[in-house]
Design goal:
The chain is built from 5 helices and 2 strands. The chain has 67 residues and is mostly helical.
């Protein structure tokens, strides 16, 4: 699995969403959000888009894949 840097927690908090609220909005369990915030789970493209829309930030701002 390719390593990445997750800024999800920052943008989730700026959107004033709890982990549970974000999970419900995008149709996953809270544990998935926890793993995404700690960069221990690679999201599918659909999930990344759903999260991006939920927090109002582009995917590239949330998930940073270094070259």
């Amino acid at each position: 699995m390719e390593q990445y840097i997750s800024h999800l927690k920052k943008y989730r908090q700026l959107a004033e969403l709890t982990q549970e609220e974000l999970a419900n909005k995008v149709g996953v369990r809270r544990e998935t959000i926890i793993r995404l915030e700690s960069a221990k789970y690679n999201p599918s493209l659909k999930l990344a888009i759903d999260i991006s829309r939920a927090v109002g930030v582009q995917i590239e701002e949330i998930f940073e894949f270094p070259k």
